[in-house]
Amino acid sequence: MKVIKQSIVIILSIVLSVNPIKFYKTERPLPVYRALPCGENEKIVSVFQKGLASGYNLTINKDLEAATGISLKFDSQAAVILGESARFSDDQDDIQNIFRILLVKSSEFFTFNVRGQVAPFAPPYLTSLKINGEEFCSRPNLTYFKDFPVGVLSNPDRHCGRRKILHTELIVNGVNTKPGDWPWHAAIHRRNKSTFKYICGGSLVSKRFVLTAAHCTSIQGTPVLPDSLGVVLGKYHLFRSDIAIQEKEVLDVYVHNEFRTSSLSNDIALLKLKTEAVFNNYVQPACLWNDSVYDRLKFNTYGTVVGWGFDQTDSLTSTLHAVNMPQISELDCIYSKPEFYGNLLKDKKRFCAGYTNGTTACNGDSGGAFVYFVPDIADYKGSLVPGAWYIKGIVSTTLSRQDVSICDPNAYAIFIDVAKYLQWIKTIMDS
Fold it and tell me: Strand, helix or coil at 257?
C-alpha cells in the first residue's frame, strides 16, 4: 500500500479498579436499572446506571458453595473485577473473552463487575455463563442496554463490521494498524508447487464466505480449483504467524459469470470455506453495503483500504496497513487519464478513489475492501461515535508505471461497486 502521509491513531484506554463497582450517593442519586442478560433466566441479573462509567454489575442469585467453578464469556473485550469471595482460576482468554473464576467462599448471591468502553459505546454483553460446566445463559440478550436510558446508542448492525478490541476506534491515512483493528480482512494464498503464496486480500462477510476480486481467483476468466487456494483469517503479520489465525481450506470458488479478464469488468468473486469461521476478537465479518447506510453516512466521502500491498520500496508490507482515501467523481477520474479511466468507468459498476500524491492501493491490495465507517446514528455530536464498517468496494486495478507492472503511486485506483452486486452475493450465499 503506497503511503506518504503520517497520521494519528486515536488510542482508547480502559482504567480498571481493583474493587467492585460502588454507587456513590449524590444529591440526586442516579436511578438504578435492572435487566435479565440471559433471556428469561431470573437467576442472573444485570444492574447498572446511566453512563456506565463504572461498568455494570452481574449477580448470580443461587446458592453457591466454596470451590464452585464459574466460566464467563463476553461478545467483546472486557474486564472483570472480583470481590473477596472469588479469584481467577486461570488466565483470561483474550481471543474468546473467556474468564474462569473459582469461589473461595460460599455465597447465596455472587456479584462481580464488568467493564468495557463507556457510553455511548455498547459495553461487553454476556454470551455464556457456566457453573461447574452447566450452561446458565443459553439465550443471551445482546441488546438490552439500548432499552434503558443509560446513554448507549442503538446498534442496528451489532453483528457485523465492529471491532471487538478496544485499543483503536479511529485510524487515518496510512499508518500501521494493530491486531484486531480489521478483523474481517483475510489473506488469500495460492498454491505454488509445494507451498502457498500470498496473492490477494479478501473480506469475511459471513462464517462461510469471503468476498474478493475475480482476477485473484481465476486464470483467463476460469475459476481456479478450490484446492489451489487457502484463506487465513485473523492475520496481521504477513510473513509470520499470529496468535489468533484461522487457516481455512476453500470448498467452492464463485467467479462472476460476466467477469472479463481483458477489461476486468465484474471483477468480483466469493470463496466458500470448507469449515465455518469462529468469530472472536480477531475474526469478525464486515457489513455489506445497503441503501439504509446513506441516511447515516451523510456527506462522508472518505473510505478506508486495508492490505499488505506494495509500499515505497515496491515490496509487500510485513504488517497490515490502512489508508483513508476519498471517493473521486467519475468526471475528475476520467479527466486525470482519459484513455485509461474512460473505458473502465463505462459500465457504471465501478468507482474511482484515492489520491495523486503517492497514496494509493497497490499490488497486493487487490481483492481487499474499500470500507466506510457508518455511525449508528446520523448527526451524532460526540467526539467518538459507535458505528460499523461497510464494504462499499473491492480493490480491482490501478494505472501501472510505464517501465514496470507496478502501480503508479500518483494515480487513482478503481474499485468494484459492491452495491451493484448485492443480489448476486445474496444468491450465492443462500444457495
Answer: coil
